[in-house]
Amino acid sequence: KEKSNNLDVKDAGSEMETEEKGTEEESTRESDSNILDVSSDYPREKHISIQRHLADLEKLANLKEDEKKPCPLCPEEKFKACYSHKLHRHLQNLHWKVSVEFEGYRMCICHLPCHPVKPNLIGDQTFAKMGAHYHCIICSATITRRTDMIGHINRHVNKGETESRFITVPAPKSSHEVLKELATDVQVLPNYSTPQKTDSYFNPKMKLNRQLIFCALAVLAEERKPIECLDAFGATGIMGLQWAKHLRSSVKVTINDCNENSVTMIQENCHLNKMKVKLNTKEDDNDEALGDGEQNTDTIEVTKMDANVIMHLRSFDFIHLDPYGTSVNYLDSAFRNVRNLGIVSLTSTDTSSLYAKAQHVALRHYGCNIVRTEYYKELAARIVIAAVTRAAARCNKGIEVLLAVALEHFVLVVVRVLRGPSPADNSAKKIRYLIHCQWCEERIFQKEGNMVEENPYQQLPCDCHGSMPGKTAVVLGPLWSGALFNTGFLRRMVFEAVQYGLDEAQPLLKTLVCEAECTTSKHFTTHSPCDENKQEECGVYIKTPNNSAESYLVPGKRKSDEVIRNAAKRQKAENSAEHPAFYYNIHRHSIKGMNMPKLNKFLCYLSEAGYRVSRTHFDPMGVRTNAPLAQFKTILMKYSTPTYTGGQAEGPLHRAEDVQAGEQVEAAADGKVEDAEFLEDDKSGVAAAVFTKDYPTHCAAD
Predict the structure, then answer these.
(1) How far apart are CA 68 and CA 71, in angstroms?
(2) Which residues of 339-376 are buried (b: 16+ CB within 10 A; e: fewer)?
(3) Phi, psi dihedrals of residue 436, rounded to the nearest 5°
(4) Which domains does the chain have, with CATH numbers?
(5) How many CB atoms lie within 10 A of CB 296?
(6) Where is the composition biased (Basic and acidic residues) (predicted)?
(7) Whole-angstrom distance, CA of residue 49 vs CA of residue 74
(8) I want to staple 403 with a disulfide (CB 3.0 to 4.6 A). Which of 166, 274, 414, 665 is the partner?
């Protein structure tokens, strides 16, 4: 009996335990179901303290002028019912102003009995007393302090949790922000502008970069159709979508990314723009069509591979590299299988190393020794081109630089690929070292050859080494010493920018055309590039309908190509001249105590002196010219006026050029106010005598 009693007691105890566990599981299920109910219908069913506008919060109170209404977020014992004007002031000052904002919603502070206060030291649990708190819009947690709530939301964002973690169905499309650029819609995450915190990085500041690349691809699409182009780092897929949406059947677009979340985002953006998607996530040809567009029949291939892998496996006509940071790790793969006369464009965002802020990183990535100079942006572009040239030469390919742009956030380089060892050798010969004077900022590329010179300072046009103590110059590089622009290609890019309505790219492209030709004229025509007869690039003939060289075409014979190439080379030698390397900043070389002339006027003065001159996109106050620095300073000093005569008319110019700085300016008019004040204030006879000697007419008049 005792044993049976013990067994009965154990059975009863086990039943009690199972009942307690059952009640706990039921309570947890109920709580989870409550949370799921709130989050699954997000953002429709949410806590009343989470609202978009203050008016929505006032609607909860049902404000009426004649009746007293309680606060919907405060208990009755904390805030008694009052009239509408007082309740409106209470909601605005106590709840709305201290709210936490997230994706257009405001998490207002709540005083309702949702968050119990911890028990006091005595141990009495004050369940009736509740504390002020916030309700998290993502996980429905209650947090007391506002700063803690902000940190809590930031942790969700850093983990990529922008929806409730209890949702098992896919998030609605309306939860993503939709941005529009160049008639292309893309969905982005809330933290899309921070690359360290998101998989689908989208930078609105790179819009100009995307437009320039689009123009380059449009020019290539006019030369041959169709072309296979690759966006190796798709992220949101905005660039590849723009290519496919506007160029349509002229291009076959492949968007690649190694991140699974980015690939999913690219697929959604393709469906958003009514594009067909062809998925290829493996290295073999296992393709699967995911969906059909309703209006557009174009197909975009989306791949999930490493960028180096896909460029090794397949050949493309156009490749764009835009990694986060430097792109040197992908250059060898890019030039391995790119087709002849294809284009490789790369965007480098590691401006800290390229702009000489982290010189050791530039040495590690690019193998270049650099210092901070006045022309550091052009120096950065030539560093990147030198790395591109070496990578192409390792694959027996040469390059012709079509475009090089260095702005605040990025360095963009667009090159055309020429197959063969001879173009590779010619391109490699253009990589040289640069001698830079640290006193006057004069610079010159070292001469070709392997012989060591006894005094490298003799190559510099300046004489700072003889007049200044110590070593005055440094050797920078190796750098690209050739041209940075191709005028014919840039003019066709201007035409494409006008045709597709790229307003932001047009002013920059026109500046680049002037810079490539080293001229100040800004007259452009928007006629079709097919009407131009001088379309020669990289020593290769580009077919145009109105060119007489087509008469040499003999189908099926190689000699016709040679005739065309030779004619194009002769045309290049006769009609083209490379722009001068580097530029001078007019503020850097200004004279102390003198007012400089206007920049446009100074360009005219240099042009009248017989030098080639233009402005540069690298520096708004930069002047690209073939004039030596000494002559540059002489002309700048000649047309500068002293600071104390800045109010004079701009008519007279300085006549003395080789005299001292104090004797260069002559009097412009008699009876000047400053001279009269000087005579009145000067009481010493010696000073008056000196003044009478220098200005006898003034003294006689006074």
Answers:
(1) 10
(2) bebbbbbbbbbbbebbbbeeeeebeebbebebeebbbb
(3) -125, 125
(4) 50-117+130-159 (no CATH), 488-517 (no CATH), 584-642 (3.30.56.70)
(5) 15
(6) 1-32
(7) 10
(8) 414
